[in-house]
From TrEMBL:
SMART domains: TPR
Organism: marine sediment metagenome
Protein name in UniProt: Uncharacterized protein
Annotated InterPro entries: TPR-like_helical_dom_sf (IPR011990), TPR_rpt (IPR019734)
PANTHER family the record matches: RAPSYN-RELATED, TETRATRICOPEPTIDE REPEAT PROTEIN 28
Length: 356
């Protein structure tokens, strides 16, 4: 049994004791922990039940701090469900209530989570400003988990901006905190994102090692979303190695797991489906074009200028998603459909591009 399941069992037992003792403050805490654990297990319906129960109790006994903490967790739940409007609504309430009752830590946590919503909405610079401010608060209070979480979030922004050095620096700091505090969730999140940096740098061996370390931790603690994420990453590495059957197997495994826990429509699941679709397309297309059959050797005076317009963007593009949006691949294929040599060249070139 994974550590998340063990913790869930423990807090369910605590919940029964809280009920017997009529300890409502402790019950609110237990319900919030259980709501968070259910999120990690991907059981969002059960998470919502726990958190709604905690919210009702906190309002009934007028526990403002408990209410703010619960609203903050509800905000994170809806963030995971990609319902950013509802998420922002809960987080703004949490922030205001925490501020009014003097709960500075929950106020900071809510602000940090608002930054996460902004990040998902594409407002990376706004998110980064919030996290830089909150990081100072966490450093002053010595809140190590908060610091590590902020480092991971900032690492995401730097990664998206292709500032790999800065991204690596903050992610390494997060990993140090995770290892020092034995926080396995922080460790696996840091390892996965550091692996993505190495993957972008084409250090596939290094990326694979980090992904496997992260995957083993996720399997140990029972983090199903983490397992799906890292399995997808390993599938992309297999794709780069042109191990298409293995890549497809890992993509299907990752999507199947997400679908099983109700995240079949999540951004991650949709990304995996695109990977599967592109892999099928590329396999089918290359299968129909044999480099041995109908091969046309280029002449010594082959005019590379003629192929440059069709391939220039292919060469510099980083993802198949960009190719799809701009139609470059289809344009090249249509233009050179009667030239097997050029078609084979195009397919060979695109196989080297990322589909993550």
């Amino acid at each position: 049994m994974g550590k998340i399941e063990d913790a869930t069992k423990h807090f369910e037992e605590s919940l029964m004791i809280n009920d017997q003792l009529h300890d409502y403050d402790a019950k609110i805490g237990s319900l919030n922990v259980l709501g968070d654990l259910m999120m990690k297990l991907g059981d969002f319906n059960q998470s919502l039940i726990y958190l709604q129960n905690a919210l009702t109790i906190s309002k009934t006994i007028k526990d403002s701090s408990g209410e703010a903490s619960t609203l903050n967790n509800l905000g994170m739940l809806y963030t995971k469900l990609s319902n950013f409007t509802e998420a922002m609504n809960f987080l703004n309430q949490a922030q205001q209530i925490a501020k009014n009752c003097g709960d500075s830590l929950t106020e900071a946590n809510s602000s940090a989570n608002i930054g996460i919503v902004l990040y998902h909405q594409g407002q990376m610079d706004s998110a980064l400003k919030i996290w830089e401010k909150i990081l100072k608060i966490y450093e002053k209070s010595g809140y190590e988990f908060g610091k590590a979480s902020i480092y991971i979030n900032m690492g995401d922004v730097y990664y998206q901006k292709q500032k790999y050095k800065k991204s690596s620096q903050v992610l390494e700091e997060a990993l140090k905190i995770g290892r020092k505090s034995h926080d396995l969730t922080i460790q696996t999140n840091s390892l996965q994102k550091l692996g993505m940096i190495l993957q972008d740098k084409k250090d596939y061996k290094g990326a694979t090692e980090l992904y496997i370390q992260g995957l083993q931790i996720c399997q140990e603690i029972g983090d199903l979303v983490g397992i799906a994420t890292l399995t997808n990453n390993l599938g992309t590495i297999e794709f780069y190695g042109k191990n298409f059957n293995s890549a497809l197997e890992k993509y299907n495994e990752a999507y199947g797991l997400l679908n099983q826990i109700g995240l079949g429509n999540s951004p991650l699941a949709q990304s995996i489906l695109k990977n599967i679709e592109h892999l099928h397309q590329m396999r089918n297309q290359t299968k129909n074009i044999s480099p041995k059959a109908n091969w046309i050797e280029p002449k010594k005076s082959f005019n590379w200028v003629s192929v440059t317009p069709a391939l220039r963007d292919l060469k510099t593009s980083h993802t198949f998603g960009k190719l799809d949006k701009r139609g470059e691949l289809n344009t090249a294929l249509e233009k050179y459909k009667n030239s097997p040599w050029l078609l084979y060249l195009i397919y060979s070139w695109t196989l080297s591009l990322s589909i993550a």
